[in-house]
Amino acid sequence: MDKTAVIVCGSSGKMGQSIISLLKDEQYQDLILIGGVDINNSENITKESINLKDIEDKKISFGKFVTLKEALHFTSSVKNKVIIDFTSRQSSLIHAEEAMLYSVPIVIGSTGFNDEDIAKITGFAKHMPVVLSGNMSLGINVLLNTVYDISKYLGKDYDCEIIEMHHRHKKDAPSGTALMLANAVAEERKLDLKESAVYGRCGEIGERLENEIGISSVRAGDIIGEHKVIFAGNDEVIEITHKAISRNNFAKGAIKAALWLKDKKMGFYDMRDVLGLEKHL
User: Fold this and answer.
1) Could you report the per-residue pLDDT of 210-220, keeping only the tens digit for each?
2) Which residues pair with 82 in a beta bridge?
3) Which pLDDT tens digit goes with each residue over 48-64?
4) Mean pLDDT of all residues in 269-281
């Protein structure tokens, strides 16, 4: 069969539910949902082997699993698979390793990874293809290049500040997207973000240093995601804002990445690769 089977990690979460809902749309007929992985599936572990034909013939619904390892074991007869993972930093690292062991492509939308984590995932990608991005939306990935160019043309006379807002349940701060945007500025200005980033300000902090890149985080309500990049000079201020109106924005990007991985053998990619965007950094 030509269809690609999809296993969604974090299937009970808001992003997982958005992806599952979209996979039912006819525009994604080349993909078929075959498994959902979530700790909340503890009472619904599928005991029998799952095959694509039974799901297509509506003999069974997709399988529910507690671990990705279980899902990959019970769907071993399905050769053409892809994993979409929106869980957490710790879980995604485990899932990426398990995907490598079973040679299954994986799309990772989790955030909070450090340099060591990225190195591990890059190593896994030598054995299967990986798409990892702190933000799956088209708009944000276009904005990365825009922010780079604005920083280039305005120069260091314009201070840069980034404000990001997310829902109260988000566990990492700053957001992966804010770090991507800050890194775009740092790369253009040839700065080390680890040395230049200032995360919030409090107390007697003194005057702003020339090479600072300020990053502030807000956690409140059910804000899906909002990012504002501010370039402030002595006589003018430029503000660029991106607001996510629906989680479907990210879900569509993840599904697009899953389709894009179909013909890839191995490698470490981000959403700009998927979207065919020029990469300044």
Assistant:
1) 999 999 999 99
2) 6
3) 788 888 888 877 788 89
4) 86
Question: Of 64, 81, 166, 227, which is the active-site residue?
Answer: 166
Q: What local confidence, expressed as pLDDT, does residue 24 receive?
A: 86
CATH architecture of the region 138-243 = 2-Layer Sandwich (3.30)
Q: Can you tell me the distance from the alpha carbon of 227 to that of 140, in angstroms, rounded to the nearest whole number?
A: 9
- Which one of 14, 120, 170, 228 is the catalytic residue? 170
Give catalytic status of residue 242 as yes or no.
no
What are the backbone dihedrals phi and psi of residue 26, each rounded to the nearest 5 degrees, phi first? Answer: -65, -25
Q: Which of 178, 191, 168, 10 is nearest to 89 (CA)?
A: 10
The domain segmentation of the chain, as residue ranges, is 4-136+247-275, 138-243
CATH number of 4-136+247-275: 3.40.50.720
Answer yes or no: 170 catalytic: yes
Residue 231's φ and ψ, nearest 5 degrees, are -115, 115
Token pair, residue 115, equals 């340099």
| Rounded distance between C-alpha atoms, residue 76 and residue 255, angstroms | 22
